[in-house]
Amino acid sequence: MKKIFLVLSITLLATFAGATTVDFNSYSPLDTCMTSISTGGLDFNGGDCIGSHMYVFDGSSPNGNGTPALIFAGFGTGASMTMSLTGGGAFTLNSVDMTISWYDGNPSETVLVNGNPITLIQGLQTYNLNLVGVTSVTFSDLASGTGYWLMDNVVYNGGTTPEPGTLALLGSGVLAGLGVLRRKMLL
Question: What is the per-residue pLDDT across 65-105, written as a single tens digit (0 to 9) for each?
């Protein structure tokens, strides 16, 4: 009985700690300009399909990893893309894989993420952002206004991650339950 209780407790804790990865592999339609894209528990909003463009590319970009990925191009319009949790609420954005367009003449480009600069280079790289408790994250257009940036493998934790106090309360309940079981087995 103790073993079953312990396995159930560990399983419950593991579900709180699990991160989700959005990889765009099952998104449809591909190669179609959209102002809003919702997939994997996240909403991506940006682009007007006139001066700025956002879409899930089919994976044939030379700078990608061969799978579908989100592409955003503001072309100097000052447009940006905002990511939020589907249905709202706070989340933690752990990391994203990003690169600049293969035809960009610059070896690197700056993108602002919630106002903080990150430098993108040619070739997909993982950027550890660790933005905790945010309700949205805004990614700017390329500083130069040329080309696009590509995003894939967005790793986040949704609003179900408990606070430390909640975990302590849960742990106390588990210990109390084990104590009750022990007493019953001794009697």
Answer: 899 999 999 998 999 999 999 999 999 999 999 999 988 88
**38 phi/psi in degrees, rounded to 5:** -125, 120
Q: What is the CATH number of the domain that holds 97?
A: 2.60.120.1360
Quote the radius of gyration of the chain (alpha carbons, Å): 21
Q: d(Cα 85, Cα 38) in Å, to the nearest integer?
A: 9
pLDDT tens-digit map of 166-178: 445 455 565 666 6
pLDDT at 25 over 70: yes
Question: What residues contact 72, with CB distance under 8 A and at least 6 apart?
Answer: 46, 47, 52, 53, 54, 81, 139, 141, 148, 149, 151
CA distance 40 to 149: 20
Cα–Cα nearest to 157, from 175, 177, 138, 132:
132
Domain that holds residue 22: 2-186
Which of 155, 153, 103 is closest to 129 using CA atoms?
155
How far apart are the C-alpha atoms of 26 and 30, rounded to whole Å?
10
CB 119 within 8 A of CB 112: no
State the amino acid at position 69 in one-letter form: A
Number of domains in the chain: 1
